[in-house]
Design a protein that fits this description.
It is a single chain. By secondary structure, the protein is mainly beta. It has a domain of 88 residues. Helix content is 7%, strand content 51%. It is flat, with a radius of gyration of 32 Å.
Length: 503
């Protein structure tokens, strides 16, 4: 009989404790890894919470880049890639183009290369043009064809207008106004697919430069009427013609070969021998007789004699006037307020001030009280941020719309670098005034919204990034480019009308 021991001096592992220690170590390691990743310098692509897409051209092919210059769509497309909305992952191009017949197919796809909206025979962005013939696209609607008929979808693929029409076009120069055709009839839809004017008219024209001005419609008998953007009929289709000039609830119509100005009650307030109505503003109606322009009041009383080549009411009973091919400003008593010394003069639609061109390059700026405030070369008028960028002498300066000089860092709150100049050379400082990029450039631009700034040495341009590091050494002659702008190593193409980037 063996004598057993009361205990075994070989210690056994406590497995529960071991497992607990392993789990604790794993959690600790995961925390270390996570902290390390947080401390790692992020790639530029990751620094932005949103991705913006731009058409780009390289090596004879088209592709898409992001706001960091990263390649999103490979450069393998023969036809230009259209991006209706730079914030949306929707790209459109033409394929199988037959130049002889004008026939082509289309392809819509996303950044993964996946084809979109495959239920339709054709998917197209709806193009439009501004006054300078720069192309732009309706952002909220795409034209689609199904079974030979056209309709609209939004960029998420939802059908917003049934495919039952013969064609759909934009009204050039006017946003949110899509001409819908069925046989010989026309109508108007907005970019939400809502029918504003029924498809029953022979012809439709915009009543102004904004869709809110409404539409002039012509019926099958050739009679013109006016329909507002809220679908209400303002004037029945009973006139020979309607001019796209209105204001103060007055309209210019043509009956029996003669123009007249009528009120909402369809009563004539001004009629007689005149050739055109150029503007209606308050009680002032600017009239053209033969080659002379003057002003009648809504009471049909002559206010400004017919002795000018052109007139434009700018408010406060003042008028921009043209006489002997020079521009100045007069008041309602025909007194000259600003001398006729300018080759051109205009009131900006989006501000209160007057731009008066002394030469092709140099401009005087007057405030709404017609006081001369600035003289220089206007680089930009930004209504969104409310500033004027103007070169005065050798200095590039910023002013708000009260004509108070502003520092660039007060205007561009998201920028990391700010243009500065010393001894005829350009460099960049940070928001605290520390010099980041030395004064070594002969010309330079402010940082753009994507963090890049154009730099010039001698006759060639390059680019720096948001940290002030060179993204592209100055190497490009861009003398033919009206606008110098970069996204990393990509520069805005010479053809501004199409707005794409290239290397």
């Amino acid at each position: 009989m063996s004598s057993g021991r009361r205990y075994n001096d070989e210690r056994k592992l406590n497995m529960k404790k071991v497992i607990g220690v392993i789990i604790a170590l794993a959690v600790f390691l995961m925390m270390i890894i996570s902290i390390g990743k947080l401390l790692e310098p992020k790639k530029e692509e990751e620094l932005s919470t949103s991705t913006y897409y731009f058409t780009a051209y390289k090596g004879g092919k088209w592709g898409v880049i992001s706001q960091t210059g990263s390649e999103i769509i490979p450069f393998e497309y023969t036809e230009m890639i259209i991006i209706p909305d730079k914030t949306k992952d929707v790209f459109i191009t033409m394929t199988d183009v037959n130049l002889e017949t004008g026939e082509y197919k289309t392809k819509a796809f996303n950044k993964k290369g996946e084809e979109l909206f495959k239920d339709y025979e054709q998917v197209e962005a709806i193009d439009n043009y501004d006054e300078s013939q720069n192309i732009w696209y309706e952002e909220n609607a795409l034209r689609v064809r199904k079974d030979g008929k056209y309709g609209l979808i939004n960029t998420n693929g939802k059908e917003i207008l049934e495919c039952k029409y013969d064609n759909i076009y934009s009204i050039k120069g006017v946003s949110n106004s899509l001409l819908v055709l069925s046989g010989e009839k026309q109508g108007i839809a907005n970019d939400a697919g809502e029918m504003i004017v029924p498809v029953e008219y022979k012809e439709i024209r915009p009543a102004g430069k904004d869709y809110k001005d409404g539409y002039i419609v012509v019926n099958s008998e050739g009679k013109a009427g006016l329909i507002a953007s809220n679908k209400e009929t303002v004037l029945e289709a009973q006139y020979d013609d309607i001019k796209p000039v209105m204001g103060n609830n007055l309209y210019v119509v043509k009956e029996n070969g003669a123009l007249k100005v009528i009120n909402q009650a369809k009563e004539a307030v001004i009629s007689g021998e005149f050739d055109d109505v150029l503007q209606i503003s308050g009680e002032n109606v600017i009239i053209k007789k033969s080659s002379s322009v003057g002003v009648l009041t809504t009471a049909n009383v002559e206010k400004i004699p017919f002795e000018y080549q052109d007139l434009k009411d700018i408010g406060n009973d003042h008028f921009i006037a043209k006489k002997e091919d020079k521009y100045g400003i007069i008041d309602g008593q025909n007194k000259t307020i600003v001398d006729f010394n300018y080759i051109y003069m205009k009131q900006r639609k989006d501000t209160d001030f007057i731009e008066a061109d002394k030469t092709v390059a140099e401009t005087d700026i007057y405030n709404k009280n017609l006081e001369l405030k600035l003289t220089g070369i206007i680089s930009e008028v930004n209504t969104e941020k409310g500033y004027i960028n103007i070169r005065i002498g050798d200095a590039q300066k910023y002013y708000n719309f009260k004509f108070e000089e502003k520092d660039s860092k007060d205007l561009f709150t998201t920028h990391t670098l700010f243009l500065t100049k010393k001894d005829g050379k350009y460099g960049y400082k940070d928001k605290d005034g520390n010099l980041v990029v030395d004064y070594i450039y002969d010309d330079a631009k402010e940082q753009n919204e994507y963090g890049y700034a154009a730099i010039k040495k001698g006759t060639v341009w390059g680019c720096i990034n948001k940290s002030g590091n060179v993204a592209l050494e100055p190497s490009l002659n861009l003398d033919n480019n009206l606008v110098i702008d970069f996204i990393n190593q990509w520069h805005l193409a010479e053809n501004l009308n199409l707005h794409y980037y290239e290397k």
